[in-house]
Amino acid sequence: MYRADLGILIGRWLHSLPPPELQGTYQAMLAAAQAHGNCRFWLLDLRRRPLAGPDLNEWFREQFSPQLAALLDGPLFTAYLAGPHQRIAAESAEMELHLRHAATLDSYPLFYDDESEAVAWLIEQQERAGVRAFKPTVRA
Asked: Given 3-state DSSP classes, what are the helix, strand and coil percentages for the chain, each rounded to the nearest 5?
């Protein structure tokens, strides 16, 4: 879902999906981003599904992420919403390596447990990138 008032693309998963279907949802997010002026500010709500496993992480890292900055004409900023039950995975050494690798691909992901904080960070990144000249009232 694209929030035109915020300039943010939002993806929410209501349940766990097998990796091929999950890959399809990320492809759909990319298509939606392109349809909305190459939106590079994504809010991904992972609270109702497990964090990705090794197969999906590898696909995301090796195949999907490397193409995003080029296809969207600039770096991707992603705020991930994760629940308390996902904290261990979000703070793992494997995830740290994934986040460091993402930065080398012009992808800047951060994890949040509060949606309004995640949206505020995305708006701040828009302002820094010069794509937002005003600060909207944030209502998550």
From this structure: 50, 15, 35
- What does the block give as tokens for 54? 């090794």
**Tokens 């190459």 appear where?**
38
**How far apart are the C-alpha atoms of 5 and 139, rounded to whole Å?**
10
In the chain, the DSSP E strands lie at 2-3, 8-12, 41-45, 76-81, 107-112
Rounded to two decimals, the pTM is 0.81
Under the banding of pLDDT at 50, 70 and 90, the label for residue 49 is confident
CB 118 within 8 A of CB 43: yes
